[in-house]
Amino acid sequence: MSAYIEVDYQFPAGVDAQRQAQAIAIGQTAGSWDARFQHREEQLRGHLAEVRAVHDLPEGRHLATIRFPAENVDGRMGSLLTMIFGKYSLAGPAKVMSIRLPEGYGQSCRFGLAGIREKLNVAERPLIMAIFKPALGLSAEDHAEILAEVAMAGLDIIKDDEILPDLPSAATLARWEACAPIIEARRDRTGRDLLYAMNLSGDARQVQDLARQLVARGTNALLLNVLAYGFPMLEALAADPEVNVPIFAHPALAGAWCAAPDHGFAYAAILGTAMSCAGADAVLYPAHYGSLPFPEADEQAIVEALRARGVAPVPSAGVHPGMLGAILEDYGPEVILNAGTGIMDHPMGPSSGVLAFHEGLERWQEGASLKLSDLPAGPLRAAVEKWGAA
Q1: In DSSP terms, which residues pair with 167 in a beta bridge?
Q2: Whole-number mean pLDDT of the chain?
Q3: What is the pLDDT of residues 105-131, one digit of tens each?
Q4: CA-CA distance, 118 to 153, in Å (whole number)?
Q5: What confidence tens digit (pLDDT) does each residue in 245-279 have?
Q6: Of 379, 354, 364, 348, which is closest to residue 128 (Cα–Cα)?
Q7: How far from 159 is each of 1, 143, 194, 221, 340, CA to CA, in Å?
Q8: Which of 50, 92, 111, 377 is most enclosed, with most CB atoms within 10 A?
Q9: Among candidates 159, 200, 196, which has minimal Cα distance to 179?
């Protein structure tokens, strides 16, 4: 039985959805042919896509479902995205809402949430992740000083800010060399690792070379701005036997790809389906109760797509301890909590920012209240007094 890829396209009011869907089905596959290729008729027709349905939506919109033969692509995100929306994305208003792929399509994550938990020896509770702040202007020694402050407080993961490339003032390899002894000391003292997801930058060859150099020197996680550097870059890293560490995918540029109502892709199609089928182990995206305007339905759809393939969901952007009740109600324990200012700008210091999350998690596990009026003095109460509660 042939395998197929199904894609839902949304068209705004005033667009002939049936006609445009048919244009996609033909123009994004085999196209048309004349009598010269009549002897190849059956073969060529086998590559054409099929419009399966066109449904009415509110406000005059329409949703068209198109089925593509999976044999039209090579199993990678580059050829898939080119087929389903490449040239047609220039043809007028249309938005890819969802992509349904054959089971096992693409590249599975090597670690995912389960593998990250195993590396950290944390089986049940949500994982706690911080971000180096300020994002720019720090030296390698500054990074080490910040890490030392949060490492012994029980942090699980820390990452570079995504806008920090391999700069001479704080070169990536130098940052690792400065931070590695702190991670080793934490491991010796507690018996648990701390992941440092180091940001990759450069051209394609430099990115892969840097990743290999970092891992060879002991780096235990990586961060990639996938939409800036490309899905093929993520696929190459995730398949590289010399880069055998978890890869955290950052959503930088996702708004440019996904935020327009009648153009581009739905967030879940890119940050959920595409990321999880290109080898990401964990994917960051805005929490709908965070500092960026983000629809709750989009967040839920991203999480569903990630969890279907074992990839760790990482709600981000403005996350702080006062959000724990809302986040845990939505996610349960199977989540990585990513906080930048919510840890680094804690009024009692970054280590107290980590402790505030742990205190909140313990209260949640015990069924205790997370309301400000019920909190004793300490890191969690100080955080909720500063940032409030979601």
Answers
A1: 170
A2: 95
A3: 999 999 999 999 999 999 989 999 999
A4: 20
A5: 999 999 999 999 999 999 999 999 999 999 999 99
A6: 354
A7: 45, 11, 11, 9, 9
A8: 111
A9: 196
Query: How much is the pLDDT for 1?
Result: 42
Task: Using alpha carbons, select from 327, 237, 317 the residue that is nearest to residue 275.
Answer: 237
- Take residue 355 and report the two structure tokens written for it: 């402790």
Sign of CA dihedral 327, 329, 331, 333: positive
The tokens describing 112, both together, are: 């995912």
Q: If DSSP codes are grouped into helix, strand and coil, which group holds residue 197? A: strand
Helices (H) and strands (E) in the chain, counts: 17, 13
Say how far apart CA 338 and CA 320 lie, in whole Å: 8
pTM: 0.96
Give the pLDDT score at 390: 81
Residue 153 neighbours by CB under 8 Å, 6+ apart: 350, 351, 352, 354, 355, 358
What is the rounded distance in angstroms from the CA atom of residue 318 to the CA atom of residue 240? 33
Cβ proximity of 383 and 346 under 8 Å: yes
Nearby residues of 169 by Cβ (< 8 Å), 6 or more positions away = 137, 139
Strand partners, 245: none
Q: What is the pLDDT of residues 290-327, one digit of tens each?
A: 899 899 999 999 999 999 999 999 999 999 999 999 99
pLDDT digits (tens, 9 = 90+) for 62-112: 999 999 999 999 999 999 999 999 999 999 999 999 999 999 999 999 999
Residue 34 has pLDDT above 60, yes or no: no
CB-based burial, 248-275: b 16+ in 10 Å, e otherwise: bbbbbebbebbeeeeebbbbbbbbbbbb
DSSP string covering 38-107: GGGHHHHHTT--EEEEEEE-GGG-EEEEEEEEGGGS-SSHHHHHHHHHTGGGGSSSEEEEEEE--TT-SB
Name, in order, each residue with C-beta under 8 angstroms of 310's C-beta and a sequence gap of 6 or more.
108, 109, 112, 113, 114
| 87 among known catalytic residues | yes
| Closest residue by Cα to residue 358 from 315, 385, 331, 324 | 324
Catalytic, out of 87, 95, 133, 159: 87
Measure the CA–CA gap between 291 and 315, rounded to whole angstroms.
11
